[in-house]
Amino acid sequence: xxxxxxxxxxxxxxxxxxxxxxxxxxxxxxxxxxxxxxxxxxxxxxxxxxxxxxxxxxxxxxxxxxxxxxxxxxxxxxxxxxxxxxxxxxxxxxxxxxxxxxxxxxxxxxxxxxxxxxxxxxxxxxxxxxxxxxxxxxxxxxxxxxxxxxxxxxxxxxxxxxxxxxxxxxxxxxxxxxxxxxxxxxxxxxxxxxxxxxxxxxxxxxxxxxxxxxxxxxxxxxxxxxxxxxxxxxxxxxxxxxxxxxxxxxxxxxxxxxxxxxxxxxxxxxxxxxxxxxxxxxxxxxxxxxxxxxxxxxxxxxxxxxxxxxxxxxxxxxxxxxxxxxxxxxxxxxx
Amino acid sequence: xxxxxxxxxxxxxxxxxxxxxxxxxxxxxxxxxxxxxxxxxxxxxxxxxxxxxxxxxxxxxxxxxxxxxxxxxxxxxxxxxxxxxxxxxxxxxxxxxxxxxxxxxxxxxxxxxxxxxxxxxxxxxxxxxxxxxxxxxxxxxxxxxxxxxxxxxxxxxxxxxxxxxxxxxxxxxxxxxxxxxxxxxxxxxxxxxxxxxxxxxxxxxxxxxxxxxxxxxxxxxxxxxxxxxxxxxxxxxxxxxxxxxxxxxxxxxxxxxxxxxxxxxxxxxxxxxxxxxxxxxxxxxxxxxxxxxxxxxxxxxxxxxxxxxxxxxxxxxxxxxxxxxxxxxxxxxxx
DNA sequence: ATAATTAAGTCAAGCGCTTGCCTCAAGCCG
DNA sequence: CGGCTTGAGGCAAGCGCTTGACTTAATTAT
Lengths: 335, 335
Hints:
The structure is a homodimer. The first copy, chain A, is built from 13 helices and 12 strands. Chain A is of the alpha/beta class and about 325 residues long.
């Protein structure tokens, strides 16, 4: 097929090992031989075979990324962060998307193991126990992004959904709002669904505001569910003066519903989102939101993974990155 | 390290080749031996080493994807489509992001070649000649997405930006608009910048409308540039009744600027976008746009690549996928 | 002058799997 | 009953690279 070490060795008249060493910059040959080898390698357009090297060295320089969905801007952004740092350390990324389905996750864990990836980053689905177990059993360095892990074996990185959600609600409270509704995500989803709801409840409690079940509507994080949820909220006896949506998409949906109901935002009602993705700046009014450090989530995950791969000790198992309150046009002071 | 064919062979008391054959489903062993081998393999939790297999078989089942930017929803969507079909054919995806920079592109082409990927999909930057040449020289099956290729060697897949843009402008014309402005992308970018502008000019010409230079503003495809461009358009003597933006993001920017100027959309001015991404449904009014078949672009690219890899003949070198006119709220009939 | 060190290489055994070719015994046919 | 086919499996070369151990000649130290 293509040109190999052997070919070069034959032409230069040295052994394969010498060629290998020279090409890898291991000082072991004379100036003259080195130069010659380099010359010949260049003129033959030698391209090292990473597969063979991987086999010999037992490392592939590949990181496997298990993700539920690359269309989702959140995952795309985290992936971008991962890739950036991975490049720095000479790793390439294999991505595997699972649609959040357990069997796909399991399948890909196996495939990545077969491909002998040097490490894995998992941010798919809800981290079923079986996945966590399988991940651990592979013995491949793995870090988990934004998924609660049961065992404290795999390092993980998150945002603190409880306190960030708390921060959002607290902001609304400080603006003078008392009747604050929430459009939550799926409460079965511990990480972002349940925990954001928890933060909401906690903030209300801390500020002595009653928690009213009728002020909670559940959505699925997507725009349309936000619109529907808002519709329901507006048809109740207790109409809120502010609504906190657990995602920007639902926040935008809420804005749409409110406008359709003839409300002005933020004059008649304040609306907040969570995420700070593109959508939150496209809508009108632009959405006040909690900015997730998506790119940094990826970068840090990869930094951590790199440490694990290199065998460095980690200070902790669970890392948290802070979010940022981003105040835009959809919320206002209630006088 | 981990358990190998050899280990299994030793335990069962047969040769490695027999184990290999059984594990690969090549009928060559007796029922009894087969069963035994499978049993032992399972109990030892044998995981085949794809790296070794790749070396032996000279194929990696990996596709390299060279992309400028994964944050961009367009690329993310195409990637999703690619991955879906890749999975079907048993390929995994290595992604390499280049920021559209030539040297990065070249670097990754080399890396992917070293990794001996079975195929590559290129959709980064503006396809400089040197990249095309390098790509061709690798002899690795490659398909190009949405980039004009000089030589008709590499198969490529596109949307027809000229006629799709024509379609958009034609729609505005048929709504009765005569003064139609365009917010273009970078005209140096042949594929989506220049060609969309060409389609605009062509439509005007075909309907005997004058082309006026002052009705063209150049942006960079991003929201803010659309906003600025719209600002400029509104300050001229000839105020357009409709604006065609070469991207949804710029379209949304245009909407914002128009609103700020006190215009109602579509009552006072119609605005169109191009792409149909999430943003176009988040803004208010929702944007009429040209829907790119992003996912299908990816799927088809991978289908084509698979054919090339399998050595099948292609009917053509250049493929086009149709877009779809998506009528929403930002355009109206001019009476 | 001799022993010890070093520079410059070579050898060959891996890494784990695939595969064309060979063997050997049993079954089959005429 | 001898030759032929066939089923079941083994052999070993090969994929392309790495690396510890070994060799040899030159250089240095004593």
